[in-house]
Structures are given as structure tokens and as C-alpha cells.
């Protein structure tokens, strides 16, 4: 069942991307693409029409919140935000942009998988 979900991972840190891909693939999710900035997130979303985008906030070229605003114009994919920050103003901005959930880095598997299940179930 999980393999039918198309997932995109967007993070400027290659180690974080690798860890997320591994955690998700071990659970049977179909990670179809990876990117390192918000501009790539926008392009990959148009190309793959994912069910879920897991995206960092702070990235070069285009940050995750800006990318989310653009993505929301043409996609209803669930977006799970990764952040090293948990400030209230960032959380409010994320909610206003249509973020489904967020996790504070470093992300552990026992936090990631329930969050992924939660946002994907909410999109059905």
C-alpha cells in the first residue's frame, strides 16, 4: 500500500536526504525524487505530482516556505516541513502556507514515520 505514495525529499544537506530516503524506503514508501533547494522542489513537484513532500525550511536559492507558497498554487500534496527552528512565528507562517505538519531536526525514525502516516491519511 505504501509503495503507491510518491514522495519527494527536499533538503540542502545530502546526509539528511540520504537518511530520510533510507527510513522511508525501508518502510515501503516510493521516494521518486530528491532536491536541494526550494526551486528544485517546485520543479520536481510539477514533474512527479507527489503525494508527499518532505522539505527543509532553510535552504539556498529558495527556502521551504517560499517554495510551499508556489507549490500550493498547483498541487495539493501533503507537505511535511523539516526545521531546526521551532519558533512560534515560523510555525504560524508554515500554517498559513498550508504545511500539514512539521518536525524539528534531527529527525528520528520514530517521529518521522507517524508524521508521514498522519499527513498521508489526512490527504485521502
UniProtKB/TrEMBL annotation:
SMART domains: REC. Residues 6-120 form the Response regulatory domain. Transmembrane segments: none annotated. SUPFAM superfamilies: CheY-like (SSF52172). Keywords: Phosphoprotein. InterPro entries: CheY-like_superfamily, Sig_transdc_resp-reg_receiver, ST_Response_Regulator. Pfam families: Response_reg. One of its GO terms (biological process) is phosphorelay signal transduction system. The keyword NAD does not apply. The modification 4-aspartylphosphate is found at residue 56. PANTHER family: TWO-COMPONENT RESPONSE REGULATOR, TWO-COMPONENT RESPONSE REGULATOR ARR22. This is Regulator. It comes from Brevibacillus formosus.
Amino acid at each position: 500500500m505504501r509503495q503507491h505514495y510518491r514522495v519527494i525529499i527536499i533538503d540542502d544537506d545530502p546526509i539528511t536526504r540520504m537518511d530520510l530516503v533510507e527510513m522511508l524506503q525501508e518502510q515501503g514508501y516510493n521516494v521518486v525524487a530528491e532536491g536541494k533547494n526550494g526551486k528544485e522542489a517546485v520543479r520536481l513537484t510539477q514533474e512527479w505530482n507527489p503525494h508527499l513532500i518532505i522539505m527543509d525550511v532553510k535552504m539556498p536559492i529558495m527556502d521551504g516556505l517560499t517554495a510551499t507558497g508556489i507549490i500550493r498554487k498547483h498541487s495539493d500534496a501533503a507537505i511535511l516541513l523539516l526545521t531546526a527552528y521551532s519558533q512560534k512565528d515560523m510555525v504560524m507562517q508554515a500554517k498559513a502556507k498550508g504545511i500539514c505538519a512539521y518536525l524539528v531536526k534531527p529527525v528520528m525514525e520514530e517521529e518521522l514515520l507517524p508524521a508521514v502516516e498522519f499527513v498521508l491519511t489526512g490527504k485521502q
